Amino acid sequence: MNKDNLRILLVEDHPFQLKATQCLLESYGFNQLITTDCAQGAVTKMLGADKPFDILLCDQCLPDISGIELVKFASQRGMIRQAILLSSLTAAELDRIEDMAIAHDLPLLGYLIKPLKQDEFIQLLTSSPLKNSAQKNNNNPSRKPTNTATNFI
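Above: the chain's sequence. Below: its structure in token form.
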């Protein structure tokens, strides 16, 4: 995987979690990282981007809308290729979110329970079907999403 070409948008409303996740990503060589603390900020960044983000890494419980709603919004408009939700919700709540993602054919790569386990987090990021196509996709200015399989952990 060429981590330098994988474009990630990180949306996390808790300052400590945002900084910790950002540092973790940067320590593993993910250099094209944009961060924001709310869905409105994420939409602004996506609208200003010249191409879709490869991965939307998003807290499920944001102050303005839920993470899954942001994934749906961004996916329907071709602003992202895949998403990973971060959450401290219960397994039952996450199962309902997973069902919603399947019902709406959302490009959800998976979800991770907070606090993040470093190995699981990096494994999920590097298992993305985009890993072999990040460079190719970044050379294509099209805002259309790619067709990728939805894999849940």
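Residues 47 and 79 are 8 Å apart (CA to CA).
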